[in-house]
């Protein structure tokens, strides 16, 4: 099987809905690829508290090459507010077709590209924006092995 590394190196959000009334929001992002094996990674809480947080936190995913040509694979950014008491709260989220990012990056692999997207509230209303830098690496071949061994190989490639 062939996999392509996909890296996100920087994420910035602007004009988010403020869900904390008494203090500045402590926001983090859960980034996942939905439609593959639903792999996800989480940023630490942004050091820039409030409604315009930013993260310089590299993330690397490995996506099956054949699935990059299918339009149902989505990159999902779920912005959440860390709460001192109770459960963390969903703020907003962004869904991006991974095929679009891959097609836009054609011919300039491993060179970071920037994209800006409208952020949607959990109620589906537009609010704020999300920008991120990403790049696709060269294809990595892995011999056909059992699913369990494949997961271990991919995990080890990430570190």
UniProtKB/TrEMBL annotation:
GO terms for biological process: defense response. This is C2 domain-containing protein. CDD domains: C2_SRC2_like. InterPro entries: C2_dom (IPR000008), C2_domain_sf (IPR035892), C2_SRC2/BAP (IPR044750). PANTHER family: C2 DOMAIN-CONTAINING PROTEIN, INGRESSION PROTEIN FIC1. Residues 1-111 form the C2 domain. Pfam families: C2 (PF00168). It comes from Liquidambar formosana (Formosan gum).
